[in-house]
Amino acid sequence: MRHAHKIDVKNQLIDKTIRIAARYRAGVTKHRTRSSQTTAGTMSSRRAAISLYRRSLKLALDWAVQHQLWRGQALYIRSLFEANRNIADSRQQRALLSETEKLLDTWKHPDPYVPPTAPGGSKYERNLPSPILDPPSHQVNRH
Q1: pTM for this structure?
Q2: Contact, 21 vs 13, CB < 8 A?
């Protein structure tokens, strides 16, 4: 029963993402701007988009039961980001990035996967090497 709920949640997320992507694709208009204006805005929005893409993949991995299911979701997420890659209008870029951010916050997993050796993981700081201490002064060899 729990597995069916995860599939329903995933399908709702996919449907909403498709609607957002289609809405912004329909309103795309290309116009030329000066390259100096484009460079600064493009780099910051590019970094934000890359960050959102990575976070989307990690979120999909939290919800996926099997790696094969996640791979299909990863390809779909990539296609959504590729479809909106050529948006030139900075207002549309910001709006799309903020809507994607809201989607990620909405679908955040209540119990996300944490690698065992990462902070918060089950093996974090387990079997740490013993600290190297200075020997007491009476045991130091004095030549």
Answers
A1: 0.59
A2: no
Query: Tell me, what DSSP letter sits at residue 125?
Result: T
Amino acid at 53: Y
Dist. CA 58–CA 64, nearest whole Å: 10
Query: What tokens appear for 111 in the block?
Result: 């119990």
* 60-105 confidence digits (pLDDT tens): 999 987 889 999 999 999 999 999 888 888 899 999 999 999 999 9
How many CB atoms are closer than 10 A to CB 63? 19
CA distance 127 to 35: 54
98 touches 35 (CB < 8 A): no
3-state helix, strand, coil in the chain (%, to 5): 65, 0, 35
pLDDT digits (tens, 9 = 90+) for 98-131: 999 999 999 999 998 888 888 988 888 888 888 8
> Going by C-beta distance under 8 Å and a sequence separation of 6 or more, which residues neighbour residue 87?
24, 28, 93, 96
Cβ distance 36 to 19 under 8 Å?
no
